[in-house]
Amino acid sequence: MSAPQWVRDLKPSGPQGSELLEAERAKSAVNVSSLSSFLFTNEGLARKHRVLKILQSEKVFDKSQNYFAGRIDRFETALARAKRLRQIAVKHGWNNDDRLAANDLISEPGPYGLHESMFLITLRDQGTPEQHEMFLKKAEQYKIIGCYAQTELGHGSNVRGLETTATWNPDDKTFTIHSPHLTASKWWIGSLGRTANYAVVMAQLIIGGKPYGPHPFVVHIRDLKTHEPLENIYVGDIGPKFGYNTMDNGYLLFNHVKVPHISMLAKFSSVDLKTNQYKRPASASLIYGTLTWVRSTIVMQSGGVLARGVTIATRYAAVRRQFQDRDAQEWERGENQVLNYTTVQIRLLPLLATTFALHFTGKAMMALYGANQKKMSQDVGKMGGPQRGPGPEETHSGSDLLADLHATSCGLKSLASYTAVEGLEVCRRACGGHGYSSFSGIGSWYADYLPTATWEGDNYMLTQQVARYLLKAARGVLAGSREPSNDTEYILTTFLSRQDTGAAFDILGNDSDLVAAFAWRSAFLTFEALKHRDEQKKAWNDLLVDFYRLSRAHSQYMVVKNFYETLQSSDNGLDSETLAVMHKLFRLYALHTLESEASEFYTSAAVTVRQIQLARTTAVMKLLAEIRPHAVRLVDAWDFPDWQLDSSLGRFDGKVYEDMFYRASELNPLNRVTVDPYPDSAVLFKRNEAGPIKPKL
């Protein structure tokens, strides 16, 4: 039942949340609109608000019951939203950027998620023109709905260990897709459980009894009219998960299913119809291009993912008041804003700085991915497609860029997703008890984002790829066979030339020296790992912890470098005061990271013990005090509409407690149930007016 009028008339005690946030914004001169434009461009901001207006006008996107619905109801609503979103996109002539903006605003995984990302990307980037005509055009028109089936019940990150097979049949020019073991079952595949009727299946190619490694095959799995599984295909949903329950992650098994020759995506490798010979790719890494795209995208999104939690926690910390300042004058002794406590600032403000650091790094990551795709297209055109002869270990045009992209995407995916996952939990805890409520908007966001630390390469396993790349680069630098051709080789060469004279970086007074200290630490750990591996002949497994630390160090260097270089650009459009605050955020991120990893910086001789002490006790604390007045305006610059955040605690107007009470009392369907509390009664509910939660169509 609705709350009586006397309840509705109640107000929070003390200063109102709206007054507190208004006062916070008045403290700072940070130009929110120009900073937002710097982050997203005016075009991007206009697109978001145009799309938002359309979504808010559609009943199916109403979020009022999101936190109350069960698994099946949530999936049904998500499917209804996905279908309507596609209809709206066609009606308004949306491009891909419009669709991505809509997905960000809706903020939940949808049943078309893998179709619109990995399925389309794989078809586009790894298919031939003939395959584009046969598969891609239909997929783009949603005539077929697909997914990307790589992970198996027994194999995740180890792609080379996949058990699903694709055996070439020279007699009828087909492939036989087969699941020889239970652990060969495709598992965790998004959009597969109930939605997809096609799948790009990663399977071990076998020709004449010889294995050639995993390759992508387009496989029809459900009837296009009845949507029932095809013969000898067993497919379904894997069940409820920790989060991500609006997505139908599925399993998939094959029993000797034949597919035509055109099913093998053949832009980079293929089987010759006439000779039955395998045409190998110029680089084995080209087969995994979709994974590189996904990892790059994860890095790009990580800043915004974390910024949601930081926005909610910062606004609530400015509204929430607890205890009194022990040093305040008697007449000042009201309850203190939680954001004034340095134990809250040290948790939230470095994370605020991190959001910008990750965002700028994500932009650089996507630029590197774009450059690599352009280079690969040029090289494939010159070479006329898949090659016979050169092995994957041999060099080819663009190989350095591809290796750099692969290592960078692995290292930054690991660091960025780890940082966002850990940071969201810090934000939730910083909200106190209310952070545990679904209405905070952090818990469900955290649960949905959490698998990012595992999928597309476990965050610990991926660091081996970075270490392998760095060790190879270090060997090349030591051999002195050529001048440095990229940033990694440059910092390794610089380290070798200066290691005898020492570093002597002024990390407290010079920002470029601060970046150089991170580069020095990365180079030092690289050569230390190389010494252990090549000179001391340590086993690879014995070095995995060292490799993890090396990858983390190198990735942190790249984040610091990208943050610094972004602020150095002359066309950032920021006024001097806003830019000054951004430089303070850069120093806070770099120095807080440095003092958190102090032992490695000291061991590498990048800094002294005294510098570490000053960074921790003086510089970081001073930066917290200087950034504190700007905190609310800085999170405002991320431009999250309340509709997107769906959070009581993170409301722009500060009406935190009013919104929490409204959701609990007015929207909560459990309050429309009257129970029989006595154990000797067989009656459970005396009255149940809650009803099923269905999508509003």
TrEMBL record:
Reaction catalysed by this enzyme: a 2,3-saturated acyl-CoA + O2 = a (2E)-enoyl-CoA + H2O2
Biochemical pathway: Lipid metabolism; peroxisomal fatty acid beta-oxidation
GO cellular component: peroxisome
Location in the cell: Peroxisome
Residue ranges annotated for the Acyl-coenzyme A oxidase N-terminal domain, each copy included: 31-145
Family annotation (SUPFAM superfamilies): Acyl-CoA dehydrogenase C-terminal domain-like, Acyl-CoA dehydrogenase NM domain-like
Positions of the UniProt region annotated as Disordered: 378-399
Binding site for FAD: T151, G190
Domain (Acyl-CoA oxidase C-terminal): residue spans on this chain: 512-677
Domain Acyl-CoA oxidase C-alpha1: 288-471
Highest taxon in the source lineage: Eukaryota
Family under the similarity heading: Belongs to the acyl-CoA oxidase family.
Protein name per UniProt: Acyl-coenzyme A oxidase
Originating organism: Friedmanniomyces endolithicus
